[in-house]
Amino acid sequence: MIRVSVVGAKGRMGSHVVDAVNGAADTQLALALDAGDDLTRISPDNTDVVVEFTVPAVSLTNVLALVAQGVDVVVGTTGWTEEKLAKVREAIAAGPRPDTQKVFIAPNFAISAVLADHFSTQAAKYFESVEVIELHHPDKVDAPSGTAIHTAAGIAAARKAAGLGPVPDNTQTDGGSRGQVVDGVHVHAVRLRGLNAHEEVLFGNAGEQLVIRADSFDRGSFMPGVLLAVRKLAGDAPAGLTVGLDKFLDL
């Protein structure tokens, strides 16, 4: 049995993780902690893998503390930047298990979203234009989503590798309506009651359009990905920091 502790256990995602861990045949819940609880209660003596689902403002601090305690961590909280990822790598190198410590961070745990992201990087080199639209419930605290930023960055890298120039856009003054620009790709965020988590990538050439869309209608859709990551960290995942569920899929 894989002993799993959950940080953020009372949150919208954390509560689903608790249920998923309790419901799986090969995992058992070790500790369920939330805001204000003492993270030092989690140690290798009682936990094999920690799942951290909190908010961007505290996630980095939590992860650094857990690394210092020598436990492997699956992170579902979004809002990660290259600067924050560098701090995690530094913490692993300075921690008690520099050669065996595992930290996994996923912009998205939905298999559909991971595949959409992967397919988008494959399509990017064939189209002149691209835009990303992400749509979520209005209780989400960050915009654009970490998934959309990750998608846009992957598309931009694929376009650069293919030798494509900037996405054409003759807009003169947009008043902010053109969305956030991530590595030259416009990303638009929609917040609407009734939505859960959705992403649409629009590619265009003269006379044609390709739309890749992923929809997660319920937070339960993320749980197979979370459990996959937990099992990989408890098994054959490489040491160090891994980013993106695609690393654990046969793509």
Describe this structure as you would to a colleague.
- Keywords: Amino-acid biosynthesis, Cytoplasm, Diaminopimelate biosynthesis, Lysine biosynthesis, NAD, NADP, Oxidoreductase.
- Its main location: cytoplasm.
- Residues 114-248 form the Dihydrodipicolinate reductase C-terminal domain.
- The mean pLDDT is 95.
- Helix content is 31%, strand content 26%.
- It has helices at residues 12-23, 56-68, 82-94, 111-123, 146-161, 223-234; strands spanning 2-7, 27-33, 49-52, 72-75, 102-105, 129-136, 180-182, 185-191, 197-205, 208-216, 240-243.
- It has two domains: 2-105 and 220-248, Rossmann fold (3-Layer(aba) Sandwich); 111-217, Dihydrodipicolinate Reductase, domain 2 (2-Layer Sandwich), CATH 3.30.360.10.
- It is α/β, with parallel strands linked by helices and 251 residues long.
- The strands form two sheets. Strands 2-1-3-4-5-11 form a six-stranded parallel sheet, sandwiched between helices. Strands 7-8-6-9-10 form a five-stranded mixed sheet.
- The radius of gyration is 19 Å and the shape is elongated.
